[in-house]
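Appendix B. Raw example, untouched.
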Amino acid sequence: MGSAIPTAMPASDSSPDSSVYKHVQGLSRGLAILRALCDCADGRAQIPELSARTDIHRTTVRRLLETLVLEGLVQSSEDDGAYFLTAELKRWGDAFTTYDHVAELAAPILDELSARITWPCSLATPQEDTMVIRAATHHQSPLSFHRRTLGRRLPMLMTSMGRAYLAFSNASTRDRILDLIASKYEAGEVPLISLATFKQIMLRTQRDGYGANHGEWSADKKVAAIAVPVMNKQGAVLACINVVAITRATSPDQLAKKFLAQLRDAATEIEVAIAQSESKVRKG
């Protein structure tokens, strides 16, 4: 690796606010070059085009590009002198998954919903036999009893979002997850409700149009919640969103009566945002 781009240095203690960091112009300009390359055809361009796109002098553009080459994010072509993005940068981008993008689009919609209904809301996506919380409003809800929820794993059979995901996923997806749960049960790793009970829960969830739980999960017995799926245009479940309350304060039936319509509206808003985002990517 070559020399790293300088990091921001804290302002001196004699400044009016020593907690404020100075703007690192070199870093901003380097990021501008990367963005410009992303916007160019085939992710490649020569120095004059990058200079025009970023309004940065050609000499500075060349210096920034050579730094990015040393860091392994950009390469130059011996044929025409063009610069282009490397697979290393793509690897960085791969860390941002489709599920992360769904959570990013959903966050402001969940914030608005939670502000209206007061109770906290969450969005979770599937991972193996659990649902992983990727967006939540517990930090802003005065009724929240969980402040740190992001990344929390919820068992599918025992939680509203897991039940909604299983109930509204296609049969092959549901069967694969249930096989995984059964194998873990045989190994003594997870509790398993009876098959007859599970079938009743699935039928009720599909009939009602939402998943529910009322203290069934032993790790969180005070939770009452309802959840609905968020789907893509092909009808696959991408995520689920819920409203979370306290068992002693309300029941899932009462939550549904008060908030199900608004929860479904929020799911529809997220689905529209996803479709619009996908359309922009295709046009771009």
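End of appendix B.
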